[in-house]
């Protein structure tokens, strides 16, 4: 599974900013050096007129993007995905949609992220709140059991063990038709 | 039969972590570089008959993954209680049941416990650590993922020193070190009870969400005995720190072993994972069995499969668990609901911070209690006992306190007291399968008895008889028992001489032997005198009298 890496694109831009909306548009790119971004933020923050955090003079550069090759997903990978995530692609249209989505996301590779720390969470500026070790919840057995279709003496009932997806050969699926 | 045994496994069956540790490395090989293990040092692993057949000796490589349940009031990410036995699903919050709209809130005590353990195991604490999701489907994991720390755990690169006894008489202590790869915080899953008759599983989520510390050790060990010693040492450390109670019977300490064998100098063999080990005793047995099984398999020309096996303690063997999915793909992704966990030390602590929101590593380091290794050294220095003795003292729950209480109340030299504690007291306890706390002989009584012995009022064999009487736990003091059974040393010289004379007359043969020059028979005569007097004779005095008479 690929990890999405967003470089330090537009720091401080509010959600209404056009730059953020729609994410990536084909044809032009915003790139901003990380240091430039933080300076710009300080500038804007210290600005007595508080013009907001949309930069007046954005620095962006056009990135030549070569047309990315069409990504083909193999039947093994599709079977693996169906098994792991229990999704059902249903037919080749679904697979095409997947391929288009992969291609769309692959545009990220055109961005030069050298020397930029990958961001793992939009919350990385926030402090992780530490809770005191007190008992504040629990004792709602009846409420929880109401969600379950079958219960027995305050236990939830589940089928025995995991029922794995049958192997590709044994399944009745469109993937079986070899390309 | 195997299937029903598998059903009884408390843990979930699907936790094939065969590829898990590999995922942490960037390199292609699932193993780290050369483990510094010795060649065939294990008791049984080294005794492979391969050497006799001219085949190279086998070396086993054992790595452990230990999950320790954090001792805290509430769970890792929610405010529900942590308790061992409780009505099913009564200690479950909406977050633990993965109802939509709930979010995790990290428990400060769990972070402190992990940092304490990391410091005690000489790890470097990562000031910034990240939480990830590990996805797999199983009924006792309601969210479908477990929040763990795969990319950047709380503590990395530590070491654990452990000692174990070798030699025929188990009197030689070897000390080894195993490297700790990392310590991470993660959630526990619920409990599943398999009901085969009705073909269903009953799920109890009381345990779901409880904080766990996973301690990953490098594969530096080479036998079941070493692994058991390392686990025991870790257990003692955790109990001393208070970060976990580490009771294996209650599932607070769970060990999975990765075992492989290879010839020294060659590449590592294929490893298997052994699960469902419920006590330290079974750990050594399970690992040794698995080592032997792999050796046999390879010597017969077969191959070892990379699989997960469960240990059946009744049969004493490992059986393969259902290998459903092959190598698991856990699709690790950063936990989007939790920002990075930042820990501070006194230097990096920002001003004007809320103390409740800050975990200060230096503050915790100052408050670490004495670790077992330090306590052992102190015992040796304070009382002059041998390191092996201090090892046993700390190993048995409560024995050290008992020993110190006795030493405080008696005038006898601690070096002699330790003999009574380890040989007689511990022997009795083990025989009757009692813990120190359940001992019918209190430290006060033992101290009284040793005082009598030290003063010379009774002999050591008499003392042993008194101890036997005390074990009945009837509440009589040692002095009372001595008086009742008239076990005092015979002070009257005349009486002693008479008894010696009687013994000599009754055993003319032995007397002739001694007069001929065979001194060893003298000990037999002394023994006979002791038996006649029921241990009331001072052996030194008896020897003097006998020698005097024999030379006449």
Structure explained in plain terms:
Chain A: Belongs to the GatC family. Chain A: It catalyses: L-glutamyl-tRNA(Gln) + L-glutamine + ATP + H2O = L-glutaminyl-tRNA(Gln) + L-glutamate + ADP + phosphate + H(+). Chain A: It comes from Chelydra serpentina (Snapping turtle). Chain A: It is found in: Mitochondrion. The longest helix of chain A is centred in the middle third of the chain and has 15 residues. Chain A has 179 residues and is mostly helical. The N terminus of chain A is likely disordered. In chain A, 25% of the residues lie in helices and 4% in strands. Chain A starts with 33 loop residues before the first helix and ends in a 21-residue tail after the last strand. In chain A, strands 2-3 form a two-stranded antiparallel sheet. In chain A, a hairpin with a 2-residue loop joins strand 2 and strand 3. Chain B is of the alpha+beta class and 552 residues long. Chain B contains 17 helices and 17 strands. In chain B, a hairpin with a 5-residue loop joins strand 7 and strand 8. In chain B, helix 9 crosses helix 10, helix 15 packs antiparallel against helix 16 and helix 16 packs across helix 17. Chains A and B meet through helix 2, strand 1, helix 4 and strand 3 of A and strand 2, helix 3, strand 9, strand 10 and strand 16 of B.
């Amino acid at each position: 599974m690929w990890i999405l890496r967003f470089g330090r694109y537009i720091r401080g831009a509010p959600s209404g900013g056009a730059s953020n909306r729609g994410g990536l548009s084909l044809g032009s790119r915003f790139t901003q050096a990380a240091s430039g971004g933080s300076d710009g933020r300080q500038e804007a923050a210290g600005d007595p007129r508080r013009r907001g955090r949309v930069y007046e003079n954005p620095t962006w550069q056009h990135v030549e993007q070569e047309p990315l090759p069409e990504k083909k997903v193999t039947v093994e990978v599709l079977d693996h995905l169906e098994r792991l995530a229990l999704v059902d692609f249903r037919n080749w249209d679904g697979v095409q949609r997947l391929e288009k989505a992969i291609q769309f996301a692959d545009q990220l590779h055109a961005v030069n992220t050298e020397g930029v720390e990958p961001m793992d969470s939009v919350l990385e500026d926030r402090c992780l709140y530490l809770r005191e070790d007190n008992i504040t919840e629990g004792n709602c057995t009846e409420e929880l059991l109401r969600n379950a279709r079958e219960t027995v003496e305050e236990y939830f009932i589940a089928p025995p063990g995991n029922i794995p997806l049958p192997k590709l050969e044994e399944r009745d699926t469109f993937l079986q038709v070899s390309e | 039969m195997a299937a029903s045994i598998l059903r009884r496994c408390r843990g979930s069956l699907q936790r094939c972590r065969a590829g898990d540790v590999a995922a942490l490395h960037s390199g292609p090989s699932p193993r780290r570089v050369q483990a510094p293990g010795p060649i065939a040092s294990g008791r049984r692993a080294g005794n492979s008959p391969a050497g006799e057949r001219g085949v190279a000796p086998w070396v086993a490589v054992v790595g452990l993954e230990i999950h320790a349940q954090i001792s805290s009031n509430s769970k890792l990410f929610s405010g529900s209680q942590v308790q061992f036995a409780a009505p099913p699903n009564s200690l479950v919050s909406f977050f633990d049941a993965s109802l939509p709209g709930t979010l995790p809130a990290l428990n400060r005590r769990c972070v402190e416990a992990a940092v304490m353990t990391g410091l005690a195991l000489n790890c470097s604490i990562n000031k910034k650590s990240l939480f990830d999701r590990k996805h797999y489907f199983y009924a006792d994991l309601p969210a479908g993922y477990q929040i763990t720390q795969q990319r950047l755990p709380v503590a990395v690169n530590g070491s654990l020193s452990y000692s174990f006894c070798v030699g025929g008489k188990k009197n030689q202590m070897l000390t080894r070190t195993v490297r700790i790869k990392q310590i991470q915080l993660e959630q526990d899953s619920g409990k599943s009870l398999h009901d085969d008759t009705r073909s269903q599983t009953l799920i109890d989520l009381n345990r779901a969400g409880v904080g766990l510390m996973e301690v990953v050790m490098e594969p530096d060990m080479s036998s079941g005995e070493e692994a058991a010693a390392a686990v025991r040492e870790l257990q003692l450390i955790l109990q001393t720190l208070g970060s976990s109670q580490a009771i294996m019977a209650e599932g607070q300490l769970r060990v999975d072993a990765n075992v492989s064998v290879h010839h020294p100098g060659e590449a590592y063999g294929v490893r298997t994972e052994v699960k469902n080990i419920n006590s330290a005793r079974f750990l050594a047995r399970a690992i040794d069995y698995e080592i032997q099984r792999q050796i046999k398999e390879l010597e017969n020309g077969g191959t070892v499969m990379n699989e997960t096996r469960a240990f059946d303690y009744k049969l004493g063997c490992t059986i393969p668990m259902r290998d459903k999915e092959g190598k698991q793909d856990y699709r690790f992704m950063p936990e989007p609901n939790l920002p990075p966990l930042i820990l501070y030390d006194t230097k990096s602590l920002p001003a004007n911070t809320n103390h409740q929101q800050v975990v200060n590593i230096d503050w915790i380091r100052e408050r670490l209690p004495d670790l077992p290794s330090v306590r052992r050294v102190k015992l040796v220095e304070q009382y002059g006992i041998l390191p092996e003795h201090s090892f046993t003292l700390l190993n048995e729950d409560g024995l050290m306190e008992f020993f110190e209480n006795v030493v405080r109340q008696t005038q006898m030299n601690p070096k002699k007291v330790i003999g009574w504690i380890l040989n007689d007291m511990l022997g009795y306890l083990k025989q009757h399968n009692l813990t120190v706390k359940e001992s019918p002989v209190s430290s006060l009584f033992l101290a009284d008895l040793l005082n009598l012995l030290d003063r010379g009022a009774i002999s050591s064999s008499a003392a042993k008889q008194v101890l036997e009487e005390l074990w009945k736990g009837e509440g009589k003091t040692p002095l009372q028992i001595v008086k009742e059974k008239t076990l005092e040393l015979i002070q009257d010289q005349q009486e002693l001489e008479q008894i010696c004379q009687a013994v000599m007359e009754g055993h003319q043969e032995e007397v002739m032997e001694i007069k001929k020059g065979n001194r060893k028979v003298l000990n037999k005569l002394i023994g006979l005198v002791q038996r006649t007097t029921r241990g009331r004779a001072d052996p030194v005095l008896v020897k003097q009298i006998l020698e005097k008479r024999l030379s006449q």
